[in-house]
Amino acid sequence: MHNLRNLIKPFVSAFAVAMIMAACGKDGDSGAPTGDGTGTGGSLARFTIYGEYLYTVDRQVLKTFSLSDPELPELLGSTNIGMDIETIYPYNGNLFIGSMEAMYIYSLADPANPLREAMATHTRACDPVVANGNHAYVTVRSGTDCGGPLNALLVFDVSNLKQPVQLSQLPLTNPHGLGITGNTLYVCDGAAGLKVFDVTDPKSPASLTHREGYTFKDCIPHGDILVCMVEQGLVIYDITNPNNPVFVTEIN
């Protein structure tokens, strides 16, 4: 713990500035992690980089850019997805796109031309999504422009990308972003805290612990560090033991 703190302190301010500048989009949305591409960010993203391609979403359209010349991104194409698109998350050669009413999956088998694989509908609500293995995890919340009364964690089986199946629904208080590393899922449940779940059995997430003291908005697990976006700024935890985040520092 002492070594980790010493490692973080010299660059934590620069890291925070870079994270905010590179990861924050409109209305505080944060840049998405790439599953197996480049870049690191959170689940509330409206843009992400995967290999040599940049993908962005607005309320209706997915846009694909080539980064073969990073200084001159080239727009390759635009795809109309639907209405009320909110977030984008790449994982294992696919884009998981969240809207107010559904989760969409687009294949990157041809990264220059994302191809729609499936759509899984849910009750109308704000909808960040992350994925790991054969499962996708979605939070939905009420009290926003998205409408809808539900505050919950939804788990989908996406082993068949063309037919996602909802496995379970876990009630929460007011969930926002989420992140996953291995079998540990972190859910930012607003003022109710950072919730930590064991998803070894994905259809039955097991509550392990939670952290309070902040209003949690989104989180980024990166190696042994968990960076949390909170209402007051950033909070960093040591997740050498992923199931037991240990507070390291905060940046206001």
Describe the fold and architecture.
This protein is mainly β and about 250 residues long. About 10% of the residues lie in helices and about 45% in strands. It contains two helices and 20 strands. The chain has helices at about 1-10, 10-25, and strands at about 45-50, 55, 60-65, 75-80, 85-90, 95-100, 100-105, 115-120, 130, 135-140, 150-155, 165-170, 180, 185-190, 195-200, 205-210, 215-220, 225-230, 235-240, 245-250. The strands form five sheets. It has a four-stranded antiparallel β-sheet with strand order 1-2-3-4, with no helix packed on it. Strands 5-6-7-8 form a four-stranded antiparallel β-sheet, with no helix packed on it. A four-stranded antiparallel β-sheet has the order 9-10-11-12, with no helix packed on it. Strand 6 and strand 7 (about 100-105) form a beta hairpin. The radius of gyration is 17 Å and the shape is globular. The protein starts with a helix and ends with a strand. The model is unreliable at about 5-40 (pLDDT under 50).
What's the total helix number? 2
**Compute the gyration radius: what is it?**
17 Å
Number of strands: 20
Low-confidence stretches: 5-39
N-to-C SSE string, H for helix and E for strand:
HHEEEEEEEEEEEEEEEEEEEE
For the record, give the distance between the C-alpha atoms at the N and C termini, rounded to a whole number.
Answer: 22 Å
User: How much helical structure, as a percent, in the residues?
Assistant: under 10%
Order of the strands making up the biggest sheet: 1-2-3-4
Mean pLDDT, to the nearest integer, reads: 80
Global structural class: mainly beta
Beta-strand fraction estimate: over 45%
Q: What does the overall shape look like?
A: globular
Biggest beta-sheet profile: 4 strands, antiparallel
